[in-house]
Amino acid sequence: MNTVTRVRRSLRVARTALALWALYKIPAWVRARLGRETPDLDPTHARAARMLLACALDLRGVMIKMCQAIATRADLFPPPIVDTLKLCHDAVPAKPFAEIREVVERELGQPLEAVFADFETEPLAAASLAQVHGARLQDGTPVAVKVQYPDIEPIVRTDLANLRRACRVYERFDPQPLELLPLLVELSNHLEMELDFEREADCADRVRAIFADEPNVIVPEIHRKWSTRRVLTMERVGGMKVTDKAALRAAGLAPERVVQDLMHVFVRMILAAGFFQADPHPGNLFVRENGGLVLLDFGLSKELPDGFGLGLFELMFSMMTQNEAAMIRAFEELGFETKTGDPSTFVGIARRMMRRSDTGRFEGEFTEEMTDELFDAIRENPVVKVPSDFVLVGRVFSLLSGIAHTLGHRANVLEAMGASTG
């Protein structure tokens, strides 16, 4: 990346950061001078999110990943920001094929035609750091090739440095700052994982090993010979989109069975294996005509700390039985902390979650409404630490609940646990 590009990116980030600061701080200063109350800030949040989204789509790379990360942290950011930035998951334009070809040939050390009998110029999917193309090896084997964008690593370094500067300036001048630097550290860790395709290949192998005794759970095989840190060549596995209810029924598959199988897969990863694919969405999950589930994209796979699965089970069981002492113990075991040290905060949060369920009590399903209520409660109460692992797991179950509701059913964690052990 040349100096001109680096300067342009730095100025774009600085301009957006300054505009966001002015959007919030100047009206707040005026209100303080005039003695006026703070109005509903939702329109301001929505405008701020549009600014961030425009910057992300202009610069791509880390800026899109940052917006995606914000969209997963409803515990920190208000709904208008989260809802708008969710668009970053779908709004990434593809790179020209000539750039992709250059990366593949440089990484594999051979002309494209020497490795592949055919390589589709139009991508199957495009994301913030890479895009995926269909291809066939010389022996005719169909594969999917994930290719990292050229110069993405220096872009990542530049953008992270820009964001760190912006966060430090913000926290220096804001007397009650939202702690953005920890979120940036978390984003940096995720980016480091996602930029290493050799690690992703290892994660895919590890998840495949978890389900070695379940042939209906399919994780594509990795062609290590034609894979590097920046190019990942894997078995091309087709299937129906997990949310395509009509296609599932046409294939003779019961949507409720698909939901149950899907929940079983993630319950086994999270609660039993302690290692899971942390980004399940309809683009990463497919169903084969025989009912087999296909799992894709292991760039964001996480190892959970020892005891996390037990702590999560205890939290769910305590909410189901409305055992307040057990709720407090479970929250503390999961790593939650409060500013005041008052454990009653956790009981209040759990009660708010349960009120958003259909029956007013927890019965095994983490709905999107319940997780939204959890994050609303966290923003309003003196919780000083929310473990990022819990945020990721909560988001996973919320996404699975959304998929289940699209299919007309419920994603019940406790039922999936019973089926897994039964």
Which secondary structure elements does this structure contain, and how are they paired or packed?
Blueprint: H1 3-34, H2 42-59, H3 61-71, H4 79-85, H5 97-108, H6 112-115, E1 116-119, E2 125-126, E3 130-137, E4 142-148, H7 152-173, H8 180-194, H9 197-210, E5 217-218, E6 231-235, E7 240-241, H10 245-250, H11 255-273, E8 275-277, E9 285-287, E10 293-295, E11 301-303, H12 308-321, H13 324-334, E12 337-338, H14 344-355, H15 368-380, E13 383-385, H16 388-406, H17 413-421
Parallel strand pairs: 5-10
Antiparallel strand pairs: 1-3, 2-3, 3-4, 4-6, 7-9, 8-11, 9-10, 12-13
Helix pairs in contact: 1-2, 1-7, 2-3, 2-4, 3-4, 3-8, 7-8, 11-16, 11-17, 12-13, 13-14, 14-15, 15-16
Quick structural gist:
By secondary structure, the chain is of the alpha+beta class. 56% of the residues lie in helices and 11% in strands.
What does this structure look like?
There is one protein chain. This protein has 17 helices and 13 strands. It is of the alpha+beta class and 422 residues long. Among the domains are: 3-90 and 162-175, no CATH class; 238-422, no CATH class. Strands 1, 2, 3, 4 and 6 form a 5-stranded antiparallel β-sheet that branches. Helix 14 (344-355) packs antiparallel against helix 15 (368-380) and helix 15 packs antiparallel against helix 16 (388-406). The radius of gyration is 23 Å and the shape is globular. It starts with a helix and ends with a helix.
- The radius of gyration over CA amounts to 23 Å
The averaged pLDDT comes out at: 83
**N-end to C-end Cα span:** 56 Å
Largest sheet: 5 strands, antiparallel
Please provide the ordered H/E string of secondary-structure elements: HHHHHHEEEEHHHEEEHHEEEEHHEHHEHH
Alpha-beta classification: alpha+beta
